[in-house]
């Protein structure tokens, strides 16, 4: 028996799982709460992450009844940009600065206006703009406002920090490295000019490994704290979106994974780096492949907003029980779900939400369905750059809270004209982390082999040709309203 312990590090919680041969035996979620010292600042006490890992490891073994002595490796999935400066003893010298913290916006703006154009940075990093949330800009902010912190021994992103706590090694994976902003896609190494501009040295950043590669082994102290054996291999992982893609079998061109939750995010595997200003790109965990990352600022949260203003406390399956009685297109009703501006592909911070075409004949169910259709429209819109690049989309694999709705998945299939698939195991990021670790210790020859061996489908939704024609009109209506409002 070979078990894999995985940590999926989120913004407000850490999900721990124990996995055996692609089957999740137990999951535990440990919640933590960020602190907000000032406007636009979001921080976390570093010990919160380590304590959550300890709690989670003990909980999943207790809940599953699995024997920790059967643990083969530890793997990771994580948010990308949150980082912690530590001293030579491994002690944090400041709180973790969370990825949603926006204190460095002025730094990003000043760099773009003076010496680092968006086009140049896109060529370096794969980001089509300068996101102020990246570690890079926040370290540069420290240079101006907290220069004493630049004496830190290492600047570690969250999975790097937990790996250090487990092994004493300072390593990262190249996907998380890209997410922190210092990494150069062309050289596959830390970019010297960016390091220098931020006021630190290359030695203050961790060594870069391939996703899944063994970064160290569990120390005696860490083993005692987590209740696991000493010497277990600890493998680097990947960003949560890419780990989720791997967990859902998205390891070859033509497959798309999408998560519809608060926001919408999708990963498309591509044979090479795509040159397009409408999307983010990077190198896949699968060697030789690349990926496209597209995302929106809001998505299914609009449905929550609508349910809340209806003062309806029922579960979503009850709230939405009549939406299939409403015809496709919601009798001419269109929702723009851009309640917090747009991200890819239009990057319009000034965009707002809208409900267009209301009549006295429209009901709560019409608006609910129109919101769901608008999210399907955003998925289609995010895929346009992919289609323009000549990549044929074979299937879309859906995750997140919205994937529980058969009606919503059928809607997406009819909108896109391709099969939409719900994975059997909802914890795709945790499963992907286990796949990476299993490959890292040699159970599989490649990450693609691990993914395609362990991935299982729950249900496939096939497009209805007649509804596809209707949804072409719905999508064009959605685009036309946006253009009328915002050009």
Summarize the topology.
Elements: E1 3-9, E2 13-20, E3 23-31, E4 43-44, H1 47-64, E5 71-78, E6 83-86, E7 96-97, H2 105-114, H3 118-125, H4 135-145, E8 154-157, H5 158-167, E9 171-173, H6 174-180, E10 183-184, E11 189-190, H7 192-198, E12 207-209, E13 214-217, H8 220-226, E14 233-235, E15 238-239, H9 240-247, E16 255-260, E17 264-270, E18 280-283, E19 290-295, H10 301-309, H11 316-319, E20 334-336, E21 354-356, H12 364-388, E22 395-399, H13 406-416, E23 419-423, H14 428-440, H15 447-454, E24 457-461, H16 465-486
Parallel strand pairs: 1-5, 5-15, 9-12, 16-22, 22-23
Antiparallel strand pairs: 1-2, 2-3, 4-7, 6-8, 10-11, 13-14, 16-17, 17-19, 18-19, 20-21, 23-24
Helix pairs in contact: 4-7, 9-14, 10-12, 12-13, 13-16, 14-15
Considering the chains and any ligands shown, give keywords for the structure:
seven-stranded mixed β-sheet
Question: How would you describe the overall organization of this protein?
Answer:
This protein has 487 residues and is of the alpha+beta class. It is built from 16 helices and 24 strands. The chain has helices spanning 47-64, 105-114, 118-125, 135-145, 158-167, 174-180, 192-198, 220-226, 240-247, 301-309, 316-319, 364-388, 406-416, 428-440, 447-454, 465-486, and strands at 3-9, 13-20, 23-31, 43-44, 71-78, 83-86, 96-97, 154-157, 171-173, 183-184, 189-190, 207-209, 214-217, 233-235, 238-239, 255-260, 264-270, 280-283, 290-295, 334-336, 354-356, 395-399, 419-423, 457-461. Strands 18-19-17-16-22-23-24 form a 7-stranded mixed sheet, sandwiched between helices. A 5-stranded mixed sheet has the order 3-2-1-5-15, sandwiched between helices. The longest helix is centred in the C-terminal third of the chain and has 25 residues, at 364-388. It is globular. The relative contact order is 0.12. The mean pLDDT is 95.
